[in-house]
Here is the input.
Amino acid sequence: MLKYFWLIPLFPAFGALVNGLFGISFFKKKRWVNIFAVGTPFLSFILSSIATLELLKLPAGNRLVKAILFEWVPGGIAVLRDGSSVPFSINLSFQFDPLSAVMALVVSGVGFLIHVYSIGYMGKDPGYARYFTYLNLFTFSMLLLVLSSNLALMFVGWEGVGLCSYLLIGFWYHKDSAANAGKKAFIVNRVGDFGFLLGILFTFFTVGSLEFTSINEYIKGGHLSTSLATVIGLLLFVGAVGKSAQLPLYVWLPDAMEGPTPVSALIHAATMVTAGVYMVSRMNLLYSLSEIASGVVAVIGGITAIYSASMGLVQNDIKRILAYSTISQIGYMMLGCGSGSYSSGMFHLTTHAFFKALLFLSAGSVIHALSDEMDIRKMGGLRKYLPVTFPVFLIGALAISGIPGLSGFFSKDEILLSAYLSGRKWIWIIGVITAGMTAFYMFRLIFLVFYGKERMDEEVKHHIHESPKIMTIPLIILAGLSVIGGYIGLPEAMGGRNWFRSFLSSVIEEESHPISHSTEYLLMGISVISALIGIYIAWLFYIKNPELPEKLAEKFKALYTLLYRKYYVDEIYGATFVRGTLNLGEFLSKYDLAVIDGIVNRTADATRGTGSASVLFDLKVIDGALNNMASGFGKGSNIFRKVQTGLIQNYLLAIIIGIFIIITLTLFI
Amino acid sequence: MNINFMIIVGSIIFLIGILGVLLRRNLIIILMSIELMLNGVNLNFIAFANYLGDVKGQIFALFVIAVAVAEAAVAFGLIIAFMRNKDTFNIDDMTLMKG
Amino acid sequence: MDLYSFFIYLFSFMSIVFAIFVIAVKNAVHSAIFLIFTILSIAGIFFMLNAEFLGAVQILVYAGGIMVIYLFIIFLIKLEEVGGKRRNAFLYIVSSLILLLVAGEIVYLLIKRASYPFPPPTKFLDLKTFSDVLLKNYVIPFELASLLLIGAMIATIYLARKRT
Here is the structure.
């Protein structure tokens, strides 16, 4: 079965195709849409699981399966940087190794749960079939991205998820805000993709091939210089910054919350935004080679983490808070990867997928229960109304805060450890502070939504109901994963063998810094204390002294406004880049109108002139020739008409002459 | 008898008849020239019948005479009908087929 | 020259001369009279050529029947003279020339090129043979000829009837 792993992306592709073509017309019953839409990711998940199990059976050093389907781009001969010539060809080929196995399992597994959830959440939406088509298309692109064996196919998947992100963010396209958010996402992504593409070109120009195995061999053979590695690493990271919403290309993610909540869960929490982390881990040999590149990755990750956590402190939209939280957590992952411990980044990616998806979906459950209310100032005391949603939400919040025992603790701990060990202590401090802020805003969310006074409108209160089982069961499953999922990476300090890291070791080469257990316990303790402080402050603000936040906001009004307005970054971007591009566009369009259209119009006039000339020519010359020929015929026939005199004697004479001629000819030739 | 001589005589009478058809304007004389042509032909037939000893020539000549009779009768009918309409027997005026 | 040849030459000469007169004279009546003479001359030739029956038929039917009708018509509708303008001389010259040439060619053919590989006649042509062949082998054309004559009669009567 392992050798059929390349079918994994094709199941959802098929689902997208069927639903895309027939979903609206044929499938009056939702059941059929569901079968294709939800069944196909499930099949992908099953196949991923089976493939992973079979992969495990292989010996540790040998866990790599490639499936080359066909030669996609047969090119000519390319001349590389060092002067050697190499045939340029890109194959449509897939690669299954521990890294892609992890990603495939996460994408298909969490994806499947979100698909199931969507059946309930989007049940009454008229664009039901379209939604699932896009969702399946996204799953297909994402699986393409993680299973590809070369940078080119990965880029295809990269672009594909960007496209689906646009389609799904702007799903309710008649809402202006949603349409604009979709555009923003796509354009900001594009900026990142430009860097990514340059990185790909550079890679080919240096290495001669885009296949990961070839690139790794090249690096291991020592051919890649540090400076080139830096350049390529930075360029590729630009793409990751755009796709994973890091500083400064993060601005699209908060607006992306315009899309349906399951979309936010899948794309903007669990999968697409983690593509950057996957890419960095995939190219780990490259980043390890360049101090500067991995340093940039770590620093940007860390700064993004604290920066966006700070914005999340004061937001009032339940989904926005989670969005900023996502940006912050991905910053953590980048921090881990940049500090040399790619497996910790991947570990956090996995656990984050579980609890962030859980958080988003539970938020969706809350929104659904409150008839689409998203402002947390209008919620409160929902604990008693939502008996299933509340506990799972709490579990998610605990996980993300890094409370020991749940998955988030183990993964966050790994990252902070590696940050500490990388030598950049100040980044570690930032990470700890961010952990505290994370705990704070998550529990602020919990306290404001589920505890305290009920601040809902009366109308809304009437209709409060717990979500149906089809939505709550995925929540429960994700909650379970959030709890136990961390144990696959149980560090040695706590008695485990960090199975996750050893699983990935065939793909990811990391130095393991031996560290004494006591130091590790100390560091763990510090991050836990930071989290607990955060929770305590949240309790203070929102349970004990509910007026305290307002008073604080008054006192530090400037700071509060700065945070609330998200540092005015959107406005700055709008004034500079957006305005600049629009102005350029206007100028170019005027140029187009004046000059180009002018040329076209003059050409049209010239053509019309020659047209009338040819009409004249046609009339005078050609028609003239025709008419003259006709009249010539007339005159000629007039001459010949004289033969028909009507006098019989003339006819008879003609006959006689003819006879004479015949006789003469017969006689004398 | 010398067959060549008889052929020549018959041909001459025939050609004189054609000359008459070509050159005369009077309709009746044209018809008479046609009779002349038929006579020339008959002479030819009889000459060969005599030369070859075959009676078929004479029989054919008999039939030619019969046809000549019929033709003359119909021609007269036509002349009378034509005279009623046009009141001319000048062949130069009979140019309805002109053009 | 023996008598036989003399008479043939005589009758041939007469028929040609009279034929020329037929087409040459102005008056239609004269033309008809000359035609009668031509017919009679040709009948004479027929007699010399062992075709007595045909000669008799010629005189009786042709000269006695057809020409008489011709004269009747001429007198009845006064077809003697025809007026009209002078004709183009071109026509006369060309026609005569052509026919002269044709005549010349016929003569040439006969003298230079003709060959007569036939054996001399064995049968003697007489009336008995004639009527035998006519009424045994060619009875159908004979009957058809009578039909033809009836048809011609009807046609003529129809064409020439008085219109009221």
The helical segments of chain C are 3-24, 28-48, 52-77, 89-113, 127-136, 139-160. The radius of gyration of chain C is 21 Å. Chain C is about 75% helix and 0% strand.
